[in-house]
Design goal:
Elements: H1 3-8, E1 12-22, E2 25-30, H2 42-45, E3 52-57, E4 67-72, H3 74-103, H4 106-134, E5 140-146
Antiparallel strand pairs: 1-2, 1-4, 2-3, 4-5
Helix pairs in contact: 3-4
């Protein structure tokens, strides 16, 4: 299977509880499933013991306490993955190689790689805030599974 076919068929869906609404957006708490307890990478995606809070589009009119199904398109999922994981790794590697070529020592190469990666994350914070305001990569509430009582 080619990568484009894999990307086209990949969708992220999560079930969570709406904990806050604001205009056409909602904050949804996604509880950590039990399978997270045995996952070695769980520390990378957990925010705290309760779960992850995700801001999303609320075009379905969900209210606080509703159980909802979140949907993220494959395109948005892979863009977010690239911005958060792949691009910083490539920047780190390029910085180390460039630093080593320029300064001729491993330590300087390492320092250059870390410095350039740190600059990327600082710039990324501002880009992330703008993206969050615009809602470009936000997941959306696909449907309300259970209304609050």
């Amino acid at each position: 299977m080619c990568l484009s076919a894999f990307v086209a068929n990949t969708v992220m869906e999560e079930i969570g509880k709406v904990i806050k609404t604001d205009k056409n957006k909602a904050t949804v708490l996604i509880e950590n499933p039990q399978s997270c307890d045995s996952c070695e990478f769980a520390n990378f995606c957990r925010i705290d013991k309760k779960g992850r809070e995700i801001t999303c589009w609320n075009h379905k009119g969900a209210k606080k306490g509703d159980i909802v199904l979140l949907y993220t398109s494959s395109k948005n999922f892979f863009i977010a993955t690239a911005l958060n994981f792949i691009l910083p790794l490539l920047i780190l590697i390029a910085g180390v190689i460039l630093g080593k070529k320029i300064f001729k020592t491993d330590l300087a190469g390492f320092a250059a790689g870390m410095g350039i990666t740190a600059i990327y994350f600082i710039v990324f914070l501002f880009i992330d805030k703008k993206t969050l305001k615009k809602g470009t990569l936000l997941p959306e509430i696909e449907k309300i599974i259970k209304k609050r009582k």
